[in-house]
Amino acid sequence: MKFKANWVINSLVLLTITLGACKKNSTEEIEIKNKEKVSEKAKTWFETSVSKSIGSGIEILGTGKPDWATTVYYPGKRIYVIKVRLEKQAKANKYIVLMADERANIIGGAYCVVITENKIDEGHASFDLEVNDGAVLYYQFDNSILATKHYENGREVNKKDIITYKKSKNQGNENPNLVDPDEECYENGGQWQCIDWYWQTWVNGELVYEEYLYSTCACYGATGGGGGTTSTCQNLTMAQVHTLMTNITTETQFNVSISHGQSIMNEETGLITRTSNPIWMFYKANFFLGYYAEYTAYFTGTTFKNNINDFWKWNNISFSSISKSAGTLPPCLSQSISHTVSNPLISGDKKTATATLTNVTITYTYSCFFGSETGTRSVVGLESIFHAEN
């Protein structure tokens, strides 16, 4: 994790240096007598410092791979630039940009992505491109966004860039890279699932550009020899964990039912009583791959009516508990629930009782090999009315 620590220390310096890197003057490039040595230096640092800290399965913003033979060192900027070769033609050139100290020793880096509608020449000429219509973006090596710049007619404009996910369109054997390699997952009662990750650019709420980045696959729900549930949470990066946390969507619900006990009549007074326990499914959270969780508040009480022709009325009612009542949490996610709920208030005619969820907070924690991220979702002041007659 040494690289991660260095990145935090040098991120501001790196951002200052690299923000102008994709618009540099080509006269700053110098002839390197031993170009192979420069390429090897950049490759060794990347494989040692980046691959080991992120994982051997690192993807370079999609299916592209670094072309170390294209490595160029620019002493004026103190940066190494390596082109990323793409398997498919794209309106983008991608680079690895490594920051160096005064002795040309590499101390950090990022991805640089240049996108333009114009034709992009091969080699580093495209790295000198003045972007009139397009974008220059910088990503950390875990694919989290560092900085973005968008241009229209040579002027910077405001656009939003995100990394998001979709359930893989291809979960079957026709794509050997996205299926269970050992069939152990299925044999142990699990399901092999894949997520496709995309980079998207949004303008005024409209998706204007989308690019497939890579896929991650994991075995969900399998039980090992010890009986525990297994999943490959360690395959997720912190950037992916952040995306999954950010994309949790929630909705309030007013799905109320009341479970009534057997009616008991007092033969002397004609008073009829029964237990009446309201159940209020008040909240739903939606996660990736169709996972969801529903949350329900439980109450206990009794209702009565003075005779067989009377209306049911509340005698008493109190709050009991809150818990997850339906759905399944996705792998790598845990939760805790805290709440402040008072007993419902019975109306003057006793026909209704009003319940108020003063505050319910659900704390979610996504975990991966590199750490975890915690986020909360809250319900404040949500009310529902329980009718004794129901």
Characterize the main sheet. 7 strands, antiparallel
- Beta strand count: 21
Query: Number of helical segments?
Result: 4
Give the termini separation: 60 Å
pLDDT averaged residue by residue: 74
Strand content: over 45%
Q: How would you describe the shape? A: elongated
Structural class: mainly beta
Write the SSE topology.
Layout: H1 2-18, H2 35-54, E1 65-74, E2 79-85, E3 92-100, E4 106-116, E5 134-139, E6 145-152, E7 155-157, E8 160-167, H3 184-187, E9 191-203, E10 206-220, E11 222-223, E12 229-230, H4 238-246, E13 249-260, E14 264-265, E15 272-286, E16 292-305, E17 313-328, E18 333-341, E19 345-346, E20 352-368, E21 371-387
Antiparallel strand pairs: 1-2, 2-3, 3-4, 4-5, 5-6, 6-7, 8-9, 9-10, 11-12, 13-15, 14-15, 15-16, 16-17, 18-20, 19-20, 20-21
Any overview of this molecule?
By secondary structure, this protein is mostly beta strands. Mean pLDDT is 74; it is low at 1-32, 54-61, 120-129, 171-179 and 224-232. It is built from 4 helices and 21 strands.
Brief summary:
The protein has 390 residues and is mainly beta. It has four helices and 21 strands. The chain has helices at 2-18, 35-54, 184-187, 238-246, and strands at 65-74, 79-85, 92-100, 106-116, 134-139, 145-152, 155-157, 160-167, 191-203, 206-220, 222-223, 229-230, 249-260, 264-265, 272-286, 292-305, 313-328, 333-341, 345-346, 352-368, 371-387.
